[in-house]
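BUG: 3D viewer hangs when loading the predicted structure for this chain

Environment: internal workstation, default settings.
Expected: structure renders.
Actual: progress bar stalls at 90%.

Input used:
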Amino acid sequence: MKKIAYLSIAIGTLGLLAGCQSNEKQDDQSQNQSNTQTSQTQAMKDNHSSTTASSVAGKSVEGDLRVSVEEAIKTYQATYPDSDITSLELDTSFGAYYYKIEGVNDTTEFEIRVDGVTKKVEKEREEQLDRDEQNGVKRREDKIDIQNLLSIEKAAEIAVQQVGGGTATDWDLDKDLGITFWEVTVENNQQETTVKMNAQTGEILETEVDD
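Structure tokens produced before the viewer hung:
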């Protein structure tokens, strides 16, 4: 009788151990399935976020623009090294991007055109300054701040967000009251809006809807 009792206890103990191992395996499988589902869900979210960001960027700027504003400025500086930039414009006339950059030294005013795809330079104008503009007068008054500029894409994104949708078509970099600013034109539902922002910080300075 004692042997039978001991045998029953041993069998029961083995059964409990087997049950615990089975439960542990099930728990591990459930945890692995949960981790896999979490990873898949996160991947889907990341992919969705990336797609959304690409869509926003695509709406902000259209067309084939390969030359950044920084590269356009360096191209101007290589062409006229001893001068300061007084204005910059990115235009989309005739379906192609090009930069028009104006600058000045102590005696002469310059203007070049830089292709937005090939970076090809065309000298548009070299004009002698008036006597009262020489010797650094116009240079000091009109020189814009080209340090830490917002990119074309970022300026477009801010302008489109301010308007509530649309596509940026033109960019002008200029100075007023000592502040260098981007003025971005946005087309939305056949209406043009001009958004003026601080060229370094992106702070909105003015928004004007064309009649």
